Amino acid sequence: MTPFELAEPATVEDALRLLDPQDSSVRPLGGGTALMLMMKAGVFRPTRLVSLRKIAALSRIIATPDGGLVIGALTPLGDVERSAEVARRAGVIVRTMRRLSNVRVRNVATIGGCLAHGDPHMDLPPVLMALDAEIRVAGRAGERALKVENLYAGYYETALNRDEIITELHIPSQGARSAAYLKCTTGSADDWPALGVAVSFEADGNAIRAPRVVVSAATEKATRLKGAEATLSGAAVDDALLARAGDAAAAEAETISDVRGSAPYKRELVRVYVRRAVRQAFDGELKGAAH
Hints:
- By secondary structure, the protein is α+β, with helices and mostly antiparallel strands.
- It folds into 3 domains: 5-49; 60-171, Uridine Diphospho-n-acetylenolpyruvylglucosamine Reductase, domain 3, CATH 3.30.465.10; 178-290, Enolase-like, domain 1, CATH 3.30.390.
- The chain has 11 helices and 14 strands.
- The protein has helices at 12-18, 33-40, 77-82, 84-89, 91-97, 103-106, 111-116, 124-130, 226-232, 239-252, 263-290, and strands at 5-7, 26-29, 48-51, 61-63, 69-72, 134-139, 142-147, 152-154, 157-158, 164-171, 178-185, 193-204, 207-216, 223-224.
- A 5-stranded antiparallel sheet has the order 4-5-10-6-7. The chain has a 4-stranded antiparallel sheet with strand order 11-12-13-14, sandwiched between helices.
- Helix 9 (226-232) runs antiparallel to helix 10 (239-252) and helix 10 packs antiparallel against helix 11 (263-290).
- It is globular.
- It starts with a strand and ends with a helix.
- The relative contact order is 0.11.
């Protein structure tokens, strides 16, 4: 790796002053699990890394009175995985963590870094999109809120400016909503997925209300499939509905070819896994009602 400056500010304000909106070689640093691999491979050669590790206010998990969650951007994924409040209020996140890379990575990688990296193969962005989560972003121009579904602009591209950092993740109360995340890997179980599918909805008896369907990894960015959502909305769950939803998702998803499979192969994965994810979330709702 080439030499670089490492800055360790103690406040968000100091960190923002150290960033340079005109220089792409100056980056904020969270856990560094992805950035360090890029540096070792020579893909990224920083002149300055602004470590956020000493900003204590960014490492926390808060259960809000309305049933939601606030998670600081520097909170390690492992802390999120082990949080009883996250398990109670957004259990799909904890279930997702069990196949997200490995325990060593989860103990170092941060929730903010995971979101800011922009890799479409990440497991958490589609899940958080399905939960209608949003982030708080701080920059020299001030603070703003941004839905996770609006964060991604393309392959490894986000809507963040170079002088902005994610400070918090806000997950609204899920109430009686059910959610599931499934991924298909072509290597080991915890490998990068060829496809990730996250779904969330309210179950009204046998009918689905307010569904959210998100795909990732098979597409250039994590993407909501609103056509599939329209197919599911208000309909009673049966095999015919799941087949229609899978067909709608496969027709809508703009899949890409890469080392994990061709675009047509991934389109078929979308068809199958959207069906399975909706069924898993719905069956989980029935199981919860039975108890």
